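Table 4 source record.
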Amino acid sequence: MNTSRRQHRHSFNEPGHAHELTFGCYRGYSFLSRERTCLWLADAVRSACDALGYSLWAYVFMPNHVHLIVHPNQPQYLIAELLKAIKLPVSRRALSYLREQDSPWLERIKTMRGQREEYHFWQRGGGYDRNIIEPKTLARMIEYVHLNPVRKGLTERTIDSKWSSAGWFEGQQPNGLAPDRIPVEWTSAVPD
């Protein structure tokens, strides 16, 4: 095996499985520390989930990466299509904004592919995809996702993070991206 070649992530698009998806900003830049980019991302997540038939069960937007827990509502699906439908509109809006502002960030996110310039908002590749098949695992993954801002020292409590579904789980409305209801067969071990 040639280890100098980039390893590709494999998604297992199994009927009935939920997925915990993690993907990051280009070079670990904190692009999601800005309210506007979080709004663009929230719009893209909701639009992609609605258009492609996914339920959004939990999420957190960190400054430089994203965690989503989604569940396909049909037996045939491709996680790669969902990721593309989320990431591409955000990249386009960000690039358009940077061009309008004549931002020096354009040079920082530019790469050359042959003679062609490319600009990156997201880290290349699909990130990480963890299949979830049991309510206990779902409960642990939701807790893991919600605790991310606390572990990184960004908030003291999970519900203090504006761009997280944690507040929604506590009956608050911290933002405009309401998570979808988790079906009862998946909630036997989901925290209140």
